[in-house]
Design a protein that fits this description.
Two copies of one chain form a homodimer. The first copy, chain A, has 298 residues and is α/β, with parallel strands linked by helices. Helix content of chain A is 46%, strand content 19%. Chain A is built from twelve helices and nine strands. In chain A, the strands form two sheets. In chain A, strands 3-2-1-4-5 form a five-stranded mixed β-sheet. Chain A has a four-stranded mixed β-sheet with strand order 8-7-6-9, sandwiched between helices. In chain A, strand 4, helix 2 and strand 5 form a beta-alpha-beta unit. At the A-B interface, helix 4, helix 6 and helix 9 of A face helix 4, helix 6 and helix 9 of B.
Chain lengths: 298, 298
């Protein structure tokens, strides 16, 4: 007897990885969370993070790992728009019946709009954006840490550190960020810079909440950083809206936290997410699996 | 018979390393040039670069390497204000009779003002600045790549790349830098960003001449980057002038190239360099050696 397959959706981001397991009819059986799935830390980190998240989801579903042999998985991973990471990911000896790979942007868009046309802006640890319509498909950003990005958590954290170093030298106005960051790292000036000089995007992104905290208490330099981010995000939104997507959604914690600072016209165009990116990954897996079936039956 | 010592000055910067060899009376016997002396690439790179430069200077002087055993060396190395690099540098089994170590900023200041009080701003691959007066000694910057620095060659190169990536996505105005940088790397967009994501400060600094080129042809985004750098440099100068140093000099190719864009009041306060930093390193070595002699004789 042919067993009905299960479907697994994987959202692999720079700081964390989320998975959701559904039965054939779309009922959620379990969800899981793992660490960084940033391929620039090496594919073994990505695979570890995904495996941890999958184990958690299987356990929550009250199932055993055996089910993976009849599970169809879809994964959207940060960085997978780059050839070198795609190649590495394709070499993974995964435990699933099928694994369909794409980038994090595509699954976010599929999730946000339930598989229909639309545009999304992701701002979490990193930044990227896309608009998919019948006549046009465009991608913005997704270039990596401190690369053409002014609204991600890592950018906000990096800016905060710059403001602190400049303020320490009397080259920028005093800011509440000085004390907050000195406390977090127990260092300042040259020793603080040295601690962070090889920091990962996730480590920088971990400073972003301090910037929101300082801004909420009226710190002008912190508010300026966030307003710059929001202005950039508004510019991105306007650019995406040029291709007239039927919907536009924000994805990621930073995008959500910047929402109130966006231009009013942009705010008025925002539509709620239908599903999270990991559900978009299941959409993607179902589409690819159905297509493969058709090809086999053709 | 006691042989008169020779003196060797070493200026170890992020991109290159310069040495000068003098006889006891201060006559220049030879000069040499080596590669990067950036300790963040490992002390073996620093030592290799210095050794190459020293060999060149000895050869130009028509001497043999034996003279190093009666050579008193002074070295100012980028990064040596940080404890971990100081420790590594102190472990070097060097070939000199004596080696006195300090950071690049101190030797630049000693050279610029012939060993007297004064202030200097270094902007080459990296940025740092100091003012040394009787009543006050302050240091600004020197925090490393993309750390509280808005006027170094590496910062200018990084900004240029950001402008290009944003312009590619229609998020910033078109710039002549797009074609110049695409040509240099034979790549654009995501592939360009990926090529440069782990680039060294020196690699970024190698883009700075393209920014000066584009600005000289009237490219507004390139000119904006340079004016931002110059404004930062003016702010640094004003901060140094607060402690009323008798002299203020610019050191490094980028500082020199930004001179004409500085605030007029700042330009009017600039004084010419008396000597290059490697000669400042000899000043330092002579001071330290004389002090040691006094202590021995005391």
């Amino acid at each position: 007897m042919n067993q009905q397959p299960l479907f697994l959706g994987i959202d692999g981001g720079a700081t964390k990885c989320r998975v959701v397991l559904q039965d054939f009819d779309g009922k959620v059986l379990g969800t899981g969370l793992g660490g960084s799935a940033n391929p620039s830390h090496g594919m073994h980190t990505v695979i570890d993070s995904i495996q941890n998240a999958v184990q958690m989801a299987i356990a929550k579903a009250g199932l055993s790992m055996d089910v993976l042999t009849h599970t169809i998985a879809g994964a959207g991973l940060a960085g997978l728009h780059l050839a070198r990471y795609r190649q590495q990911a394709n070499e993974w000896q995964h435990p699933f019946r099928r694994l369909y790979l794409t980038d994090d942007l595509q699954i976010a868009c599929l999730g946000a709009h339930g598989g229909q046309d639309g545009a999304v802006i992701i701002a979490g640890t990193g930044f990227s954006a896309t608009s998919v319509t019948l006549g046009d498909s465009r991608v913005l950003g997704g270039y990596g840490f401190l690369m053409g990005d002014k609204c991600s958590g890592s950018w906000i954290g990096h800016q905060a550190l710059q403001q602190v170093l400049l303020a320490t030298d009397g080259l920028a106005p005093p800011t509440a960020l000085e004390a907050l960051i000195a406390d977090k790292f127990d260092a300042q000036g040259a020793e603080l810079a040295d601690q962070l000089i090889d920091a990962t995007p996730s480590q920088y992104a971990s400073l972003a909440p301090l910037v929101f905290l300082a801004a909420s208490k009226g710190d002008k330099p912190a508010e300026d950083i966030l307003q710059q981010s929001a202005d950039f995000l508004s510019r991105v939104a306007r650019r995406l809206l040029e291709s007239q997507p039927p919907r536009l959604s924000l994805v990621g914690s930073i995008a959500e936290m910047l929402r109130a600072r966006l231009e009013p016209e942009v705010q008025s165009r925002l539509t709620a997410l239908q599903y999270q990116p990991e559900v978009g990954a299941i959409h993607f897996a179902r589409q690819m699996y159905a297509k493969e079936g058709q090809e086999v039956n053709a």
